[in-house]
Design a protein that fits this description.
This is Acyltransferase. It is a single chain. The protein is mostly helical. Helices cover 74% and strands 0% of the residues. Helix 4 runs antiparallel to helix 7 and helix 8 runs antiparallel to helix 10. The longest helix is centred in the middle third of the chain and has 35 residues.
């Protein structure tokens, strides 16, 4: 999982920086060729974000739900804040001069200051992904942290509810979440701009929830393997095979 995370994180980094470091590259120029296809695989896919949402639900569930107790909300939110917000705030402050300069050139000082202040405030409270066409502008990739904040708020309730499922309930819930998520996107897509569909946190919640279910399934598998004891005849068979092999004897007939 760590190796997959590395390659997808690298893809995200390339996707968001290729215009800066390779300004002459136009991935859409040869859209009908093999080169165009390969470029689209590098810079266009959005499945990396979905993978990280899935991974977030998976890791949080294993860390905070494994003991079967309710989530200690104070400790949970403090840990999330300490892990995410300080560096996030630095990126916002770092990006303000560029955004302000661009808006001053287009709108003048008064309008630029007002719009930039509104944008900065929306980012401070992690709301930019809810209305990206108006509130985005600072460090564009951080929309995913706005979505993650929404997931964190849902996790103490949603995560605990999903963790109580077992057996076929997990598979039924997984099918419903995946199907429901796809249907939701299909229903709203004709009525919203592309950015609103791509970034709206509620449309990614099902992916996060599937990560929680994946962690629950893995935990149940681990519990099942731990509670199945090794039977006496199995242990004796392994010992006999080991002893005969160590003594240089053939293992045929070792179970006799």
């Amino acid at each position: 999982m760590t190796s997959i995370r590395f390659f997808l994180a690298f893809q995200v980094a390339v996707r968001h920086t290729i215009g800066t470091f390779m300004p002459g590259v136009d991935p859409t120029a040869a859209s009908g060729t093999l080169r165009g296809f390969l470029w689209r695989q590098i810079v266009a896919p959005s499945f990396a974000g979905s993978f990280f949402f899935l991974l977030s639900g998976y890791v949080l569930a294993l860390v905070y739900l494994r003991d079967g107790q309710d989530v200690a909300k104070g400790r949970f939110f403090a840990a999330r804040f300490a892990r995410v917000y300080p560096l996030y705030l630095v990126t916002l402050l770092w990006d303000i001069p560029g955004l302000l300069a661009d808006r001053v050139a287009r709108l003048g000082w008064a309008a630029a200051l007002g719009k930039t202040a509104a944008t900065f405030t929306a980012h401070l409270v992690m709301l930019q992904a809810w209305y990206p066409t108006r509130l985005s502008g600072l460090d564009a990739p951080n929309w995913s942290l706005s979505a993650e904040t929404f997931f964190y708020l849902c996790f103490p309730v949603l995560g605990v509810a999903l963790w109580r499922l077992s057996g076929t309930q997990i598979w039924i819930a997984a099918i419903c979440l995946y199907g429901g998520g796809q249907i939701a996107v299909w229903l709203v897509q004709p009525h919203l701009q592309t950015e609103m569909v791509m970034y709206r946190p509620v449309l990614h919640l099902s992916t996060f929830a599937l990560g929680v279910l994946l962690a629950r399934w893995r935990a149940l598998r681990a519990e099942r393997s731990e509670v199945e004891p090794v039977r006496e005849w199995q242990a004796n068979a392994v010992r006999r095979l080991a002893c005969r092999s160590a003594a240089g004897e053939p293992v045929s007939g070792a179970l006799a």
